[in-house]
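Entry type: protein chain
Record version: 2
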Amino acid sequence: MQSKYKVIVVLLLVVIVALVTSMLSSALLGQQHNWYTTSDSGNQVSCSKCHSNVNDEFENMPSGAPHESRACEYCHRNESGVTYAEGDGPGVQPGEEAHAASIPPCQQCHSPDTADLSSVNESHKSLNDTSGLNEACIMCHTGFDKSMKFTRALYVEYDITKVSGNWTVAGFDFVLSNSTFRNQTPPGSKHTWENASVLDCFDCHSDVKSALANGGHVPQSKNTGGDHGGKKAREGHKGRRHNFSRTSVTIESCKPCHLPDADDFGPGYSHPEAQLDYHAATTEHCYNCHYYGTENAPSGGNGGNGGNGGGKCPKCHNILRNDENHTDILYSMSEFCWYKMDTVCVGCHMPGPDDNVPFYNGQFEVYTEPSELIELTPTPPP
């Protein structure tokens, strides 16, 4: 008797499995003999039949978001130089470079912005170069998961010595390796849109924020008053560089250097020497202002730079050309890239927020983000 019930139970299970399988097959293969034509304008293929997740992303986009009102074929069957399968019957066009759809390059529609992203002045050029253009755009402007690894030298080493009465920089070397990992899992996916106005630089650059908060990344300035034309390491600009709070680092701390087209020296004065060919953030250098900035710096009165008058701004801007110690160092670095020059500036001006910038023979070790450490051997004389 028990065997009889077991057989009945097994048969019932078989019937249930058969019914479930049949329903799944029907859902998957239903209307499999109905033909989607591509002979008419537009796209008759129901992309959302397989890509329902993408369809949901578009339906949940805020009104007016880029691409929100576009059909699938606007991007995926519209790539320049690609022949897609099209038509039925005698006039059929077989697909060549793509059959049904392709992944278009962002630059096809956004060439001005993508060209700027490839500029040598763009801080994110390395992201574009290593990940590819579409990936670079997606990482910032969509809710797609992203994983990044920033690899720099642990520290940059060089010697400053006086040879035959002239100061020189030599022995420049990148030492060891330092890596910072950033993993982000924002809500959304590849087809969701994040407007540039809500982007937070520190989502990716938390190591730079840490360095800034502790005195690194750029030369430190303890005040924005006093004699701007003097050679004190502690005195920065009012409005442009070095004047942000080291304990409360915000995106506003980044803008003076990395968005230099802002009118940040007062009404009617901008900085024509700034590198402006960029998409999101430029890589500015000390050299831009402290060498090239002299000619257009305010030269008198109270205009332009925090009430600084008497022609003192040009003195400060001119320091790389007219100050004997600095010009020696600058000329000895003529074969260096600007990043190396910036490191030398930071090496001298960051460790001493007091009046004395150390000019004596020494070896510098300038550590990269997130460290704020500067090692100088021998230590400064008393």
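Comment: The chain has two domains: 51-104, 113-377.
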